[in-house]
Hints:
This protein is an all-alpha fold. 75% of the residues lie in helices and 0% in strands.
Amino acid sequence: MASTWLGVIVIGFFAGLLARIFSSNPRDPQGCLLTTFLGILGAALFTWIGQITGMYGQGEYAGFFGAVIGSLIVLAIWRMISKR
Length: 84
């Protein structure tokens, strides 16, 4: 159980880091914890989108690239909110 959570945190960090590198916007959330949270949230979002659209079955999760795409979606939403 602990190794699963550790894997989620590590993959979330690298997915969030890669998404932040691709977007490179100074208004994006910064810091190690926020980057990790961004990756985990992106993976959860893309898993949900994938299950709704039929890309993933019940119990399947987004992989690393899905987490990066989900993180980019989260960053786009963050930019829309932070412009106001």
